[in-house]
Specification:
Length: 98
Amino acid sequence: MIHQQTAIKYRLLYRNQPPYCRHQPEQVLESANKILNWNRSIVTDKIVEFNRTNTVLTDRENNTALVIDITVPLTYNVPKTEAVKITKYEKLALEIKK
């Protein structure tokens, strides 16, 4: 659902898509200035241990990238899980910025 809605929002897919339960995400969707990677290793200049997130949206025009990794923690565990995810993908984010 997140992949489909992100792709529609950034005009990588048209609105008349099948329901999210039937959506089969493509690993890469690309337009002139956006790339949406789904469940795919991100290749960087340096080797990064954690280089496979759920979704990465790269905006070439603004030179930004949005790293999306989904998790469903218990309510009391949200801050800890968020901190772990940020630490886990920090090196990947730095490499994507280059």
